[in-house]
Amino acid sequence: MVTVHAAWTVTNHEKRYEEKEEELSMSRVYNFSAGPAVLPEEVLKEAAEEMLDYKGCGMSVMEMSHRSKDFQDIIDEAEKDLRELMNIPDNYKVLFVQGGGHVQFAMVPMNLMKNKVGDYIITGQWAKKAYTEAKLFGTANAVASSADRTFSYIPDCSDLPIDENADYVYICLNNTIYGTVYHELPNTKGKTLVADISSCFLSEPIDVSKFGILWGGVQKNVGPAGVAIVIIREDLITEDVLPGTPTMLRYKTYADNDSLFNTPPTYTIYMCGKVFKWLKKMGGLEVMKERNEKKAKILYDFLDESRLFRGTVEKKDRSLMNVPFVTGDEELDALFVKEAKAAGFVNLKGHRTVGGMRASIYNAMPIEGVEALVEFMREFEKKHAK
Ligand code: PMP
Q1: CA distance 193 to 47
Q2: I need a surface site. Which of 34, 44, 59, 318 has the fewest CB within 10 A?
Q3: Is the CB of 102 under 6 A from ligand 1?
Q4: How would you label 131-142 residue by residue, b for 16+ Cβ within 10 Å and e otherwise?
Q5: Is 124 in the pocket of ligand 1 (CB under 6 A)?
Q6: pLDDT per residue over 126-175, tens digit each?
Q7: Do residue 236 and residue 111 come from a single domain?
Q8: What pTM value is reported for the model?
Q9: Which of 259, 280, 301 is the last residue of a domain?
Q10: From the CB of 196, is ligand 1 less than 6 Å away?
Q11: Which positions does the record annotate as the modified residue N6-(pyridoxal phosphate)lysine (predicted)?
């Protein structure tokens, strides 16, 4: 009886879902949000299909015990696929950690500051916040900065005044707000390199072996908010953490328990796993890189020739993921954001510290979205360029 009832409900749901499907995809906008951000439509549809009944379990992944075999398979498979996509060497652990980026700002010094010294390269707000947080635990040195020109470039990092006692050198690889990216890694003079890769996670291949820690909040390129994925070289996972470091803020707790010491954000991990599968299906990170370069070029080429809009970043340091631009007139910027929104291009307002506009064009933004945006910008230019 119960089974019959469940089958009826699911069938009915499917029917309603099919009816709504066309309407649903029709009403989706082009979402240029910096994060949480656009996810692949295919992934969202698959998750919707599995919402009520995950692979015949009769329940949603949200309702499932994190100790169940079904969830164990989900997290194991997610890790396996991520390792494959990023070609992560065997001497690195993959940890799924709660608390997002800000918790990593604290976990890095708490776990790595043996000499109580961290060197930071300040290329934007997120690097600065990490630096400020590190000061709670020891000496944080700002060894380079691009604050003098509103973080519109990456400073020369070939010969930095690295502290001989530095436990690590910290960078934010892609600066979400300002739209810059390191095309060359800093010379750390032999010190461990730690990188925040939140806004360029899985956008192109990366040589993991050059880093001690790579961490990224998943809410931009990988999944819904709720997890930071930490890729950490095993020798950096020790008991020797700062005194008073809580259990949940020790990398070792996650490493020793395969990220299941306590209840993890199960649904976020499941969605990340789906995005990893999507990326594999798309052809992996080399293909994503080509695709992202193509998308960014469409926008940058237009900005470079536009009589109204211009990019705010030094060309050599431009990000493939976050593209800030302005008209030079705040009122016109506001009008553009408003009209763009009405036309279905949403979340284009720049960060409050930069103003203007910012288009975040993560993996899941289709090329058609960028083409359509540029077309819209062209029309706006025709009306407003002097
Ligand atoms: N690092 C980068 C590069 C970010 O873009 C952000 C925020 N979007 C953060 C860190 C902070 O992340 P969270 O909001 O998860 O703390």
Answers
A1: 36
A2: 59
A3: yes
A4: bebbeebbbbbe
A5: no
A6: 999 999 999 999 999 999 999 999 999 999 999 999 999 999 999 999 99
A7: yes
A8: 0.94
A9: 280
A10: yes
A11: 220
